[in-house]
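Curious: why this fold?
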Amino acid sequence: MANYTAADIKALREKTGAGMMDVKKALDEADGDAEKAIEIIRVKGLKGVAKREGRAASDGLVAIEVVADGEGETGVMVELNSETDFVAKNQVFITLAEKVLAAAVASGAADVEALLAAPTGDTTVGALVDEHAATLGEKLVVRRVARLSGTKVAHYLHRTAKDLPPQVGVLVATDAAGAEVARDVAMHIAAYSPQYLTRDEVPEDVVANERRIAEETSRNEGKPEAALPKIVEGRMNGFFKESVLLDQAYARDPKTTVGKVVEGAGGTLTGFVRFRVGA
């Protein structure tokens, strides 16, 4: 029988993130040699990576870093997915996310393809993720990366459960004056998930489709033809108030709008990005 202790099992689980039975089998096969057991876990895990490709990875975390950039700031946000929340809250997975984020910041990667090819240590992000997928025994995916620059960039990370890492992340870019309310606005965005910053940013085809739906709905409800223009405009305003950040009722004071709050601070919002794990 291989010579190892419960403490050895615990140490190897913490180092690799692998399950208890996988660790015990590896230690048995390695005759108690921890380094050899790690190699066995990785080799067996890598063989299973391809088999896991078709599985869904809809859990995970969001990580953010804001750095100085010329005369302003740039916020970098990444979403790293796992199959289960068990792995998402594992310290091995969390440390991996920190390395992926650091690589995104250092490389300037603006899309997933560039990030996977970015260097981290003596390997690439893609290879590092595959190695961790092997030891953790789950499909891991770098789902997306975002970069947002501005005079000031605020951020907010939200935990949907106390025992899980952040699953909602927001970046908000403003001018100097807007920085006063930027974090509060970021918290609002996390809760109300707007799709656009201003009405002008809503694509023309989206507006046209919403207007068509509003007209058809009003006619189906038997509204008078003469009243349709006013009714449709009212419904379009409702759409904008739901989808456009500056038109939304402000979370901390629904009697006003986000736009009025920013205007009251004498500032300007120049952009935002919101990630929610799996969404």
Remarks:
- The chain has a mean pLDDT of 89.
- Strands lie at 59-69, 72-82, 119-120, 123-124, 141-150, 152-158, 168-174, 249-250, 253-257, 269-276.
- The radius of gyration is 24 Å.
- The chain has three domains: 6-52, 59-198+249-276, 203-243.
